[in-house]
Amino acid sequence: MPAGRVACALLSLSLLTGIYHPGEVHSEPPTTLVFPTFLHTWGIHKATSLHLFMFLGLKTKFNDPQGLAAVRLQTWDDPASQHDDDELTVYGVNSGEHNIIYNTSMYSLGVYGQEGNGSGRFQNPLGIAADEQGNVYVADTGNHRVVHLYNSGKELNWAGIVGSQGDGPGHFLSPCDVALDSQGHLYVTDTGNGRIQVFDAYGHFLQEIKADLVSPRSIAVIDSQERWSYYGEPYICVVDSGGYRLNKLAPQGRLLKRVKSQETGLSKARFGYVAIDYYGNAWVTDPENHCVHKFDRHLNYIVSFGKKGKGDREFFSPRGLAIWRRFGQVFVAEKEGAQYYWVGVDVLRVEVGQNSGEGKVKIRFFLTERAYLTIDIWDDRGEKIKTLVTAKEEPLGDRKYLWDRRDAAGNLAAPGEYRVKITAEPTYSSYHYFQKVVEKRVKL
């Protein structure tokens, strides 16, 4: 991936860091999410109120930031070059100020909207979604409607309204979030009516999804035609029941999996906004525990990231969440700012020991992300005697390898102490820029 130039957009809407597993002690910073390179962001990965003031002065302030959307606009793209492919437009809902903050270029910010119920006005909006063609949809919660905006590449403009207050098809009661699939279909969590409504690209009602949902709030969608989808599995991910349940639905609404927030291992966990990455993993913010949870595409819990604070790898009430699937760029809004990171990989629960039955060395660990894996064996003189695997692509989850105690020449290793070095490199933007290395000693 080229060294991008999204730095100024990140000043307004920055994102994520490392990951902690509940109850697990780390001797070094977690790396499921990592800082971008300095050249990519000019060293800025966390935006604050001061940064916003530097760009916009008194035009607005952070006041209850909510939903986020990140997209590569076609009007910004130079087809002859790949060096600008990571330059994103990031939209953030600034709910308490009733407006949208977004980057109008890689070096400038804009603000759209004010309080009210007419054209160009919002009432405590919450969720937002956008596509590459410039369409932007906002859940205008207080006005019981969805607002359609259009970005020509320079600024946002009013395009129209979808729906109005009510309980029939195409009507809403306090809609909280919106999502778009690759076909331009619009998904709206009609929270007050306890359902999801789906519309075509022209705003025409298509279907209603109930699926035993209780006041559904945040939503993310991935479909089989999505360009940046590894498995091509279509599904809808929605948070409901006051943030205490995460649901996986089939495109037509059939419930596939439901997990409770307690399954993260945190008794007071509460889900906020949700996003789906390139591998179909679901990421969910948790404003109560000031962290982000990661689930795989089957909604199996993987790991939790962050803790309360204002430092690195820390959040204060995270809420909006957006992932640019192509490069694994991640954006998280928090109470007084936002953070920006890349999807990385961590190697957890490493166990290395002899298998008494077969005399082999067993190597076990857990990957938080799909990665290119290399495992080397070193002797006590600091010489590498064998490589078990080289840059092997492995999915996330538990991994197990056996070393037969022989070196590269096939000779049985002499008694002594050896080092097992595990190197994992993520497959996203951070590939070649970051690798996680973990070493364990074993005595033969």
Level-2 CATH architecture of the largest domain: 6 Propeller
CATH class of the largest domain: Mainly Beta
Low-confidence stretches: 1-27
Distance from N terminus to C terminus (CA atoms, Å) equals 42 Å
Give the strand content. 35-45%
Total beta strand runs? 38
CATH superfamily membership of the largest domain, which one? TolB, C-terminal domain
Structural domains: how many: 2
Helix % is under 10%
Report what the structure shows.
The chain has 444 residues and is mainly β. It is 4% helix and 44% strand. It folds into two domains: 337 residues, 6 Propeller (Neuraminidase), CATH 2.120.10; 97 residues, Immunoglobulin-like (Sandwich). The chain has three helices and 38 strands. Strand 17 and strand 18 form a beta hairpin. The chain is elongated. The relative contact order is 0.13. The N terminus is likely disordered.
What keywords describe this structure?
mainly beta; 444 residues; five-stranded antiparallel sheet; Immunoglobulin-like; four-stranded antiparallel sheet; Neuraminidase
Topology (elements, then pairings):
Layout lengths: L6 H6 L20 E2 L3 H4 L4 E2 L1 H8 L8 E7 L17 E6 L4 E5 L5 E4 L1 E2 L5 E2 L5 E3 L4 E6 L4 E7 L4 E7 L1 E2 L5 E2 L4 E4 L5 E5 L4 E5 L5 E5 L9 E4 L12 E6 L4 E5 L5 E6 L13 E3 L5 E5 L4 E5 L5 E5 L1 E2 L5 E2 L5 E4 L4 E6 L2 E7 L3 E9 L4 E8 L3 E8 L5 E11 L2 E7 L13 E10 L9 E8 L1
Parallel strand pairs: 7-8, 13-14, 27-28
Antiparallel strand pairs: 1-31, 2-31, 3-4, 4-5, 5-6, 9-10, 10-11, 11-12, 15-16, 16-17, 17-18, 19-20, 20-21, 21-22, 23-24, 24-25, 25-26, 29-30, 30-31, 32-33, 33-36, 34-35, 34-37, 37-38
